[in-house]
Amino acid sequence: MANFWKSLTRRKTDDVHESESKLARVLNLFDLTALGVGSTLGLGVYVLAGQVAYNIAGPAVTISFLIAAVASAFAGICYAEFAARVPKAGSAYVYSYVTIGEFVAFTIGWNLILEYVIGTASVARGLSGYFDSLIDNSMSKALNESMPINVSFLGDYPDFLSFGMVLLLAALLAFGAKESSFLNNIFTCVNLVTIGIVLVAGGMNADPENWRLPADKIEEGFGTGGFMPFGIAGVMAGAAKCFYGFVGFDCIATTGEEAINPKRNIPLAIVISLIIIFLAYFGVSTVLTMMLPYYLQDPDAPFPKAFDEVGWYTIKWIVTIGAVFALCTSLLGAMFPLPRILYAMGNDGILFKRLSSVHPHTKTPLLATVVSGIFAAVMAMLFNLDQLVDMMSIGTLLAYTIVAICVLVLRYQDEQMSKVVSVRAPNVFRQLFCNAYREPNTMTSAITKIGIVVFAIFAIIWCIFMKVFEMEATAGIISLSIVGLLLIIICVVIGLQPVSTIELTFKVPLVPFVPCLSVFVNLYLMFQLDLFTWIRFLIWVAIGYCIYFAYGIRNSTQITRNRNHAEVAANALQSSNYPQQHENRGFEPDWKAENG
């Protein structure tokens, strides 16, 4: 049992016999920022703003995007600190492997595979739908008549266009990181120019009165008019939906082995891309809700409808073509990290090792790219957009939560594990109430880890209370206040522990409050997801665990790494004892004998 627990919690270390990464370091700060912006500003900017404004938040969609941006920024800066610590391919997977252990790392890696597969498939399906709408839905009508799929959990017809697009993209990614990054930069620039045109043209047609509509002019079912027609609840529900518009920046962190100067460029690229993304969303949603009253928006294609209403048909077509480019960029950004996650997991032996083979000519993980391309293409062909989008968020939010927890664990950890203090009641009380220890040790690290677990449990209880109690009820207010107070006390207790003094190029500010807030927000958003999403998610996780316990736990390369470390340590100890043993036995060492 003890060996089994050791296997689950073994942490990734660098092998003493390991060679340098085989991936080419070619991506600079501009490439990384463009990758983050391109993978995030896709379907969201052209659909999400109108969709959330229409019947969820009204003109207050701008505030929803602000709240979502702040929540994403918490996750983003946690990612940035990890990128500074562990510049390796694999994103949250590698970060959790280094800090927490192999089992948690596999769980995260498996969830990230799901996130990127679903992300790729959903954007391909959205792009196919966009093309279809340009030709008056003739493709979907023809396929529906000739090849209908009459299965409840699948799409209405096989979408061969999205299938072909994903396979084409997989071939492009297999060709090389720099080539695919160059194409991504062009598409991202076109996307930003399109958004710029929308902001200028929309701003010229903006009417601030659309933010002050009286209640008697509003149709039934569209709230009370004004800036917040659906109240604070609508703004928060909108923020939960808008949060998914920021999913994608984490693909920057997967390029650790292909980035030039990753410790500096990855944190910078994450922060810069989040700022650009927020400004684009905020500007677009402001212009859109000022051009056209929120209840008249088209939730599927808001911009063509808005420019149609004001009679600017040329701009409508420019924006439509720009949207197609944007979706191509989003498709590239969604799929770019997928083979890299498979490569990292294959390289570590916890997924099939063949996935880690790098082609000598293209310097890309060729088999991983082909496998992930076929998988995503089949998903895009068989499932419809709603089913795909529902599944996308849960893996992402869990990954963000684990990353925030890892930041806390590492920040309060004794790096060398050299200062051992027994975890006894007198020592714990002295540390909690008198702050006796000024440097991290095994006991302060244990206090932090227990504090993090208790914080997560109370955050889950808070989310359950939010579901169970009425917000206006006295019982609900008292329960939420007590749990909220306990969460703050736990944060303060963690904050009083001594922190690691290791120097990094980037550190999360206001630790432990920012990572704790990130954990809390992510758990809250996970509780907004429906039961069927959780069921599908648990089935996917069960498949992953079957692979891990049947193959990964026995074939992990960390077993070999640990053996190599043990051999090196044993040889070092033997060589340091060798002269001492000779002197103790009355012999002179060889070098003394030779020099007479």
From TrEMBL:
It comes from the Eukaryota. Keywords: Membrane, Transmembrane, Transmembrane helix. The chain crosses the membrane at residues 29-49, 61-80, 92-113, 157-175, 182-206, 226-247, 268-295, 315-343, 364-385, 391-410, 450-469, 475-496, 508-527, 533-553. GO terms for molecular function: L-arginine transmembrane transporter activity; L-lysine transmembrane transporter activity; L-ornithine transmembrane transporter activity. It is a multi-pass membrane protein. GO terms for cellular component: plasma membrane. Residues 506-556 form the Cationic amino acid transporter C-terminal domain. Its main location: membrane. The keyword Cell membrane does not apply. This is Cationic amino acid transporter C-terminal domain-containing protein.
